[in-house]
Amino acid sequence: MPYMFVSTQIRLETGPTNVGDEYSDPTIMNYLGARKTTMLGNNFSEYHVDDPPRLVLDKLEKMGFRVLTMTGVGQTLVWCLHKETV
């Protein structure tokens, strides 16, 4: 999967960090130490880590991902990353 979203709530910028959805690459999620959770009332799962976004972005850079863009949506910070496919 060449694209990935990373997000966190502004008030929680020290973690936890959302790193993927139920269709995310399990190998990447394992590398990040992410756990899959389903919030009460949601019909989908998400992967979360306790690390702050900066550490998550550092780990993903080591895997070859690069930040394409970053934005704030309401009280949420979102980064879009891409990894070149060979």
Radius of gyration: 12 Å
Q: How many E-type strands?
A: 6
Mean pLDDT: 90
Q: Fraction of residues in helices?
A: 10-25%
Uncertain residue ranges: none
If strands are numbered along the chain, what order do they take across the biggest sheet? 1-6-5
Shape: globular
Q: Which secondary-structure class do the elements indicate?
A: alpha+beta
C-alpha termini separation: 12 Å
Number of helices: 2
Q: Report on the biggest sheet.
A: 3 strands, antiparallel
Question: What proportion strand?
Answer: 35-45%
State the assembly state of the protein chains: single chain
List SSEs in N-to-C order: EEHEEHEE
Keywords:
86 residues; 3-stranded antiparallel beta sheet; GTP cyclohydrolase binding; membrane; nucleus; cytoplasm; GTP cyclohydrolase 1 feedback regulatory protein
Annotate the secondary structure layout.
Blueprint: E1 3-9, E2 17-21, H1 26-32, E3 35-37, E4 46-49, H2 53-62, E5 65-73, E6 76-83
Antiparallel strand pairs: 1-6, 2-4, 3-4, 5-6
Family: Belongs to the GFRP family.
Main location: cytoplasm
Protein name: GTP cyclohydrolase 1 feedback regulatory protein
Structural notes for this entry:
The protein is of the alpha+beta class and 86 residues long. The chain is 20% helix and 42% strand. It is built from 2 helices and 6 strands. It has helices at residues 26-32, 53-62; strands spanning 3-9, 17-21, 35-37, 46-49, 65-73, 76-83. It has a 3-stranded antiparallel beta sheet, covered by helices on one side.
